[in-house]
Amino acid sequence: MLTKQELENKQRIEKELKFLKENPWFEQYRRVKRFHKLVITSLANTENFSSDKVDLILSFFTFCYHLGDWLINSGIDKREIRNFIKNSRELSLCRNLCLGIKHLKVVRPSIPKLANMAPGFYTPIAQIYDPSGDPGKFAVLYEDGYLEVEQLMKLCLNQWTTFLINKKLIDNSSQIRSKFKLKLKKK
What is the pTM of this model? Predict the structure, then answer.
């Protein structure tokens, strides 16, 4: 026989699993948020440029871009998602980073295009140093300039969050769909 605490935990887990089954995109959204925190922590902890940090940064942008695929496969209109990404400079950069690490050559890059890199080295991420010699921020280089990685990550995450709020898939305060909150209160 289960204790009251065990029963409450079991019911909570069952409700969450039901929600995730009905909304598979939500786990990818949470993954994007977790990787955002992970990358920010990693960038704050050490000063030197490293391949590990670049890999974490690229992982964030890969998960972030593929949130669109999760939404499409959860029933959101494909054209709506593609237009949303196409009309965002930041999510277009996110797309290019994601496709650039997956494919040697990106046939149809989004605008703005990433900076041209040396043959065999695609990743347009650099550490920008300030004049005092202190290690600077990591940046994504594109054809017209650069954006600091932390800024670009935050903008991409905020744009997806706003999209989900506007679609009424999550609410602004709890980041959980209002309809789900009501289901929890009824049971």
Answer: 0.78
